[in-house]
Amino acid sequence: MEGGLQKPTRFSIDWKNQDYLNEELFEKELRRVSDHCHGCRRCVSLCNSFPTLFDLIDESKTFEVDGVTYDQFDKVIDHCYLCDLCYLTKCPYVPPHDWGIDFPHLMLRGKAIKHSKSKTSIRDKILTSTDMLGKLGSRKIIAPIINYFNEIKIFRIILEKILRIHRNAKLPKFSSYTAKSKYKNISNEMNLDNKVAIFTTCYHNYNEPSVIDDLVKVLKHNNVHVELIKDDKCCGMPKLELGDLKTVEKMMQHNLLKFKKYAKDGYRIIAPVPSCVLMFKQELPLLFPENRDVQLVSKAICDPFEYLLKLYNEGTLKRDFKNDLGSVFYQVACHQRVQNIGQVTKKILELVPNTNIDALERCSGHDGTYGVKKETHEIAIKIAMPIVKEYTKLQSTQFTSDCTLAAHHVVNAMGNKVLPTHPIELMRKAYGLQ
After folding, report:
1. Buried b (16+ CB within 10 A) or exposed e, 241-280
2. Segment 38-85, tens digit of pLDDT
3. What is the pLDDT of residue 245?
4. Is 196 within 8 Å of 226 (Cβ atoms)?
5. What is the residue range of 359's domain?
6. Low-confidence residues of the chain, pLDDT below 70?
7. Do residue 64 and residue 147 come from a single domain?
8. How far is 280 from 404, CA to CA, in rounded Å?
9. Around Cβ 25, how many Cβ atoms within 10 Å?
10. Which string of b and e fits 119-137 if b means at least 16 CB within 10 Å?
11. Are residue 303 and residue 192 in the same domain, yes or no?
12. What residues have CB less than 8 Å from 211, skipping those under 6 apart?
């Protein structure tokens, strides 16, 4: 019997239980869930985990799950990037159904077991060390050098051979200044009703601080008191996807010391990357359900356009737009979709006169590191092609996504025919702010 009309129930992750890394128990659950997925196959179009699983079963001697060896499941685990869409949008057998299937968290357990056995490659450790890469790459002298070499074909071929980073993958450019260095002090008058603390995220601090510029300008234009959170670390999502849960915990403990004071003082915490918001909204509360500070921050953090919608509903969002945006093609990021906040970005952008927003809820396939690895880049491009096809058909003048990395990846799949923007940049332009 399939699931009913009740919303999915999420259970906390008991990752500190000694049985969590028990491979015998994990394999038993892995085969149970795989057998149900084999009989359903509803999620086959979401990512490459499910086609990989079904191919393993179909090509086995028995045509059933018992024909797949335990080691072969590693391929399925490696292709899962924990987007959560199968759980929230496709699977009819999630709790409270008796089968209680939670495929993403099963894959997380597999990743944690793999990490505990020291099977994580040097490449993956480097790619997920975003704080280290950012601090190194964003130095004034080093940033232009790295950016220059990343555009040279022979260098990318060498990089592919040494670190298995695909030669055609779009790598983030480093900025010669960081968002935090620019906004050491923000001069604005205190608005006790609307106070925001910005979590810049690794990417927008080190790679595209212009997005933080745009966010600050839009918020200040709407009479919001703005501060930037200082001395924070990565949200932990890249390490979560490695199964490195102990490092996730260390990052969380460090960030809570910075974040909780803002939450207690009535600030809303805003991050311009959906994955970083989701990490504090959902993943950390499920990993650390007894931590009250995690719960406090979880309630305080939000997406930029979720906050702007709040201002709109309260009647305080300014609508003194100076410019229209024309036709905008908007890719709805997966990690924003699973926050269950609706298409808040589309709702706000459509307030701008003479603006048409075409939204598409399709995965970009990038997932931070998945889209740059040699073994998965071409698969990630293939996943992005429905977005490319739809954009080409609509012939929109602008392309945007709340996930900047996803936008660059999709544009790479397009053949770099358009310059991607973050939606908050579009808002800044609509207001006519310089």
Report:
1. bbbbbebbbebbeebbebbbebbeeebbbbbbbbbbbbbb
2. 999 999 888 899 999 999 999 999 999 999 999 999 999 999 999 898
3. 96
4. yes
5. 318-431
6. 1-5, 185-192
7. no
8. 19
9. 12
10. ebeebbeebbbbeebbeeb
11. yes
12. 204, 272, 404, 422, 424, 425
Residues 337 and 390 reside in one and the same domain? yes
- The total number of structural domains in the chain stands at 4
Residue 1 within any structural domain of the chain: no
Does residue 18 lie in a domain region?
A: no
- One-letter-per-residue 3-state SS of the chain: CCCCCCCCCCCCCCCCCCCCCCHHHHHHHHHHHHHHHHHHCCCCCCCCHHHHHHHHHHCCCCCCHHHCCHHHHHHHHHHCCCCCHHHHHHCCCCCCCCCCCCHHHHHHHHHHHHHHCCCCCHHHHHHCCHHHHHHHHCCCCHHHHHHHHCCCHHHHHHHHHHHCECCCCCCCCCCCCCHHHHCCCCCCCCCCCCEEEECCHHHHHHCCCHHHHHHHHHHHHCCCEEEECCCCCCCCHHHHCCCCHHHHHHHHHHHHHHHHHHHHCCCEEECCCHHHHHHHHHHHHHHCCCCHHHHHHHHHEECHHHHHHHHHHHCCCCCCCCCCCEEEEEECCHHHHCCCCCCHHHHHHCCCCCEEEEEECCCCCCCCCCCCECCCHHHHHHHHHHHHHHHHHHCCCEEEECCHHHHHHHHHHHCCCCCEECHHHHHHHHHCCC
